[in-house]
Amino acid sequence: MLLMQIDWFFLVEKLSLITTILLISLAIAAYATWAERKVSAIMQDRIGPSRAGIFGLLQPLADGGKLFFKEEIIPTNANKFIFIFGPCLFMTTALMTSAVIPWGPSFEFAGHTVSLQVADINIGMLFVFGVVSLGVYGIMLGGWASNNKFSLLSSIRAASQAISYELAMGLSLIALLMLTGSLSLREIVDQQHGFWNDGYFTWNFFKQPLGFFIFLVCAFAELNRAPFDLPEADSELNMGYHLEYSSMKLGLYLFAEYINMFISSAVMSVLFFGGYNYPGMDWVSANLPAWVFTFSCVSVFFIKIIAFILFFMFIRWTLPRFRYDQLMKLGWKSLIPLALVNMLITGGVILWLTK
Amino acid sequence: MDLFEAIFWFLTAMAIGSALGVILSRNPINSVLFLIATFFAISGHYILMNAQFLAIVNIIVYAGAIMVLFLFVIMLMNLNADVEPQKSRLVQFAGIISGGILFLLILAALRDMKAAGVIEKTATDIGLMKNLGKTLFQNYVFPFEISSVLFLSAMIGAMVIGKKETLVIDKN
Fold this sequence. Notes:
Radius of gyration of chain B: 22 Å
Low-confidence stretches of chain A: none
Largest sheet of chain A: 2 strands, antiparallel
Radius of gyration of chain A: 21 Å
Helix content of chain A: 55-70%
Oligomer: heterodimer
CATH superfamily of chain B: NADH-ubiquinone/plastoquinone oxidoreductase chain 6, subunit NuoJ
Shape of chain B: extended
Order of helices and strands of chain B: HHHHHH
Strand order of the largest sheet of chain A: 1-2
Structural class of chain B: mainly alpha
Strand content of chain A: under 5%
Mean pLDDT of chain A: 83
Number of helices of chain A: 13
Largest sheet of chain B: none
Order of helices and strands of chain A: HHHEEHHHEEHHHHHHH
Number of domains of chain B: 1
Number of domains of chain A: 1
Strand content of chain B: under 5%
């Protein structure tokens, strides 16, 4: 009997956790679209969305409704299956990464230890990498299947950009992993416990500032966000890979981009900014009830994530777009050598300190 | 049949089915997609054998990087089902004969294989990243370094071939 072997508490715990995370991802992505408009409006001295609800807070719902009721158009000469498959794949890969992110410390509930992480696998960081490297298929296939020259150019740009920047991203992470000695995201967060230990900061940002900088730039490029949004450069490619898309398929593309932004903010705060750790957490866990501690950890994590999302937006609305050759030059001739140097320095310092 | 075996047979069917799809589909893009599905099935097998590192590296390197480049080249060359060259009868006949001979060889090789114990259930820890790294850098460090030199030379070779040829202007 298959069903007898299943630990029902485990199943319920994981299912509710997965559902909650997906709902939160979607909600944050929805309100990131609203925040993007508000931020751009404030930075350009405009008002931004203000009609739907107070402060335009219902704007994401209005947008979603509009996209749902738009006409569904599939170009005549498009490859129908791949045309539909592209956005689905993009959305799936965007949502998959959230499985390995530790959202908070474990807590006791009804005699069970509940872990606020869907899967603590010992290759956590590589899993993130694997999913990120698959993300580009959604763009490539969608752009190719549209049977449009602009879309094809855009998908080719997306592919070469993603591959070029994955290298620098991986190299910048190797230096970090040399410090942590583990790929499990849970363990990486636990190593950054608190804020200050042994006369130095515990957060990896203070140990790997250069690595963080390289990772951040590569994250911008992998997300196809300005100033690296070459695949959807509207002035050259008329929107690029989602030019031929309409209705909710376009919605999936646009939405998945914001989910990607949310998840990569989470990954960056886990890797470099201590995840759910904050100064004085030991005092809180010793003196206040357990649920306050868990709640405060999760809120701190989300505050960090939102700060990163806002940072992404500030950059988008302040910097102009790169030219394509500049993008490639930056990736191959600056970031990769910089990451290699960072790796050498880190290795040297580790050897010197542990001698 | 327990869960383990069910997953095993599902992955096996997926691997063989999508491998067949690679060679049977007319459209090169579909072939590439089937090949990616094959890699996923094989990665699933690695995970069943507790070789997580191998599984994820297979996905990152093959499905995530090499197949992207395949797709890239196919898109650039604009290959599709219409332009696929039709082989002559003679070539098809030769293909059938050589394929049949290969099939016979494999069959002969597999004839003596024991049927029992196809599924290795006792997972070893050798595929975990820590153990794999230690094995590579303690027992097999020389072959490892040699192969890295091989990769380096292949990379430099590719760069030399791909380099833009400088135009030599004859001044006379």
